[in-house]
Amino acid sequence: MTTEAYGATKRPEDFRFLIRLARQQGERLGRAYLDFGEPLPLRKRLEELRALQKTSESGASTEIERIALDVEHRINRATPVTPTAVVSLALLGADRSLSISEVLATVRPLASYIAARNWTVAGAADLTNRSTIRWTLHQLVASGVVSVYDAGTEPVWGIGAEQHLVAAFYRNAAIHIVVDRAIAETALLAAVEDAEASVEGLVQPTAVRDEALRLRELLKFEFLFSARAQFEKELTDEVRLIGRVDDTRKAAHAADVRGLLEKADVLLAHLVLRPFLDAYHIVADRLAAYDDESFDEDAFLAECLEVGKQWELQRRIASAESRSMELFKTALRLARHRELVDGVDGPDIARRRREFADEIATAVRRVNAIAELARTC
């Protein structure tokens, strides 16, 4: 999986592949949990959607898509958080080896956030317990995803060589519970920056909402978001969890809102959004520099892989996870959606591609600023 994501040719899934796969199943790796989401009354939901369709101006039928989203949201809500996902999130976010105390320093406030959101933890595991985290680290070492160095004063654990994408697979099992929080943090910082540059110095609630919606639009091919009205409600809930806010409908001084971020128990934007935004940044940067009349997707993606490796070596991206073919393809899908790739003529295409790159670069800068806040506060 890792080599293919970095551009290698996919190996055929033939009989030899099946034999290798069967042999890999010989060892027990964790537990399987079965749970059921909230039931979906299909007949009632279809009637509601058809009634909405009659009042819609678009005329396009979206019943199947809306039902699928409803089902997926219920699956997400029923999916418990696993210790493996949380530990992978901590290690990927640091992208360096950590002692168990350093892992716990990230996991414990995250566990408090998970409890505040009323998300269940698989097996009722205590994510703040040192033994639970140590056992999880040992399991990840046994699976080859994490490596441990124990010849010094204390053991330290880090993502193994070429294992970032495998660790990301584990992390993504829980990423749906933290993406709204990550967007809320980034939107607050964006609104603070705008307010600090204004005469009034006030953060308007609409500015936070609009920035969150822009990020939602930017990442809509990566994450399964709620409908807009529900998303805005959840955004308000997330802001209240970040810090004490008397009334989210009123403007607040920029210094007070920045203080919310500085005093937050946990900041997640860099842990959640940075791998995706870094990958998008590579694609947008290369697209802005692209001047051929015809677009060769294979050649373009190959260049993105090469530049991604360069940026990794220069530490312009935080992790090897971001130089992934899958992430590049999704970023290119977004660019196509914005009509920045195929069959595009006109003198403004170069300008619009630069604006796209600038938009993502700004989001990356803000997420990196939140990473610095998390490190120093």
What does the model show?
The structure is a single chain. With 377 residues, the chain is mainly α. It folds into three domains: 63-177, Arc Repressor Mutant, subunit A, CATH 1.10.10; 178-266; 273-376, no CATH class. 60% of the residues lie in helices and 3% in strands. A hairpin with a 6-residue loop joins β1 and β2 (156-159). The longest helix has 28 residues, at 349-376. The radius of gyration is 22 Å and the shape is globular. The chain starts with a helix and ends with a helix.
What's the mean pLDDT score?
Answer: 89
Form type: globular
CATH architectural designation of the largest domain:
Orthogonal Bundle
Low-pLDDT residue spans = none
Query: CATH superfamily membership of the largest domain, which one?
Result: Winged helix-like DNA-binding domain superfamily/Winged helix DNA-binding domain
The residue fraction in helices comes out at 55-70%
Strand content of the residues, in percent?
under 5%
CATH fold group of the largest domain: Arc Repressor Mutant, subunit A
In the CATH hierarchy, what is the class of the largest domain?
Answer: Mainly Alpha
**What is the radius of gyration?**
22 Å
Q: Span from first to last CA? A: 37 Å
Strand tally, please? 4
Q: Structurally, how many domains make up the residues? A: 3
Give the class from helix and strand content and strand pairing: mainly alpha
Strand order of the largest sheet: 1-2
Domain GPAT/DHAPAT C-terminal: 1-342
InterPro entries: GPAT/DHAPAT, GPAT/DHAPAT_C
Organism: Mycobacterium intracellulare 1956
Protein name: GPAT/DHAPAT C-terminal domain-containing protein
